[in-house]
Amino acid sequence: MLTLASKLKRDDGVRGPRAPSAASDSTRRVSVRDKLLVKEVADLEANLPCTCKVNFPDPNKLHYFQLTVTPDEGYYQGGKFQFETEVPDAYNMVPPKVKCLTRIWHPNITETGEICLSLLREHSIDGTGWAPTRTLKDIVWGLNSLFTDLLNFDDPLNIEAAEHHLRDK
Prior knowledge:
alpha+beta, four-stranded antiparallel β-sheet, globular, Ubiquitin Conjugating Enzyme
């Protein structure tokens, strides 16, 4: 899965300790985001919840992946929910962009796929928003928890879904 890491090592080996020219060095320059992602993806794959599966459509683009969450308890048990995650160039100073691709009736996910999860917010009042110390693993575990622990009917994004639940559990 870590083809980007292999590519980086191979490129460093080809280039050697001294770059032959400034032009070729700039074409091989790897962003801070990509260097972080190589480490974070390895950590994520080693610590993935059993209810989650990560898919990289292009193994050379670690900044874009899909996540499938299949809850094994709670209201959404047995469901299969797809999320799309795109990591911006300014990562880890800004959070990844995550969208739910599966249409779902959930108090914290709109029918168009927007997600209410504090750690996906760049700024939050309660201090639980994004911080440069957070990782992709935190995002995946947070999304997984939206179907169990973090299911929040008191402060919903989808008000109709929350009201429906309160009327008819």
